[in-house]
Structures are given as structure tokens and as C-alpha cells.
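User: I'm curious whether this sequence folds into something compact or stays loose and floppy. Could you predict its structure so I can see for myself?
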Amino acid sequence: MIRRTFLTSILAAAALPAGAVEVTRTEAEWRAMLTDLEFKVMREEGTERAFTSPLNDETRKGTFHCKGCDLPLYSSETKFKSGTGWPSFTEALPNAIETKPDRIFLVVRTECHCRRCASHLGHIFDDGPPPTGKRHCINGVSLTFQPA
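Assistant: Here's the prediction. I'll summarize afterward.
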């Protein structure tokens, strides 16, 4: 497990532009602030089970923030019911996320992560509604919600 975490951290850092991560923590610091599931998703690029996040059903006006560094990521105005079991958005707030190719399942998907702390958020797909046609499929454990 330690070897996998180390390798995942090295690969994740290598995929990011140099100097892009503003908020850094040691593995021990991340583990102290996150639950086991949050750590698996945000630091090891895991996925929470569908339909388990209360944020999937959140309908109030407000902003969804990164659980790792509190950066505002998504507006409730771009959230929609995708039926997939994860909070879904048509677009992120400006300068909030970074993307990289994810080739883990023999197909190339677009992974998204917080641009400030590099926490894994989820993936972006081309099957969303107008106006963007995108579906940001986000793990709820990677987010906090701040009502307006």
C-alpha cells in the first residue's frame, strides 16, 4: 500500500505542470485531515460508490469547494441531474481545475483535479447538456458545499 501511494503521488506530480501545486501536504498531513475514502479518492485517484454522496442531491444555490484546500470549484448554477449517481456540472469556475489524460481503463478519459492542491475530483465526459455539452462527473467526497 505504501509503495502504491508513493508511485501514485510521483505519477500525479509528474503529470502536472511544474510549480502548479500551490497547497502541498505530506501524506501524513493528508491522512490526518481526510477520511480513508476521501484519501483514496482525492490522493490515490479512486472513485466513491455511485449514489452515496449527499451532494448528488444538493439543490440549493451556492458553491462547491475543494475538500482539500477550500478553492471554489463549481457553481450550483452549472449543476444538473445526470442520473449517474455523482454530482455533475456542465463547467467549472474559471481557473479552478486542471485536466490530464487518464489511460487507466484502456481508453483515454479526461481526469480533472483541483488546480491549487491537485486533489482528484473526477472525470469530464462529452455527454452533458447545453451549453457546454460536457459532464463534469465529480466525486462528492472531494467537495464541500457553501450555500449562498
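Summary: The two ends are 40 Å apart (CA to CA). Residues 76 and 82 are 14 Å apart (CA to CA).
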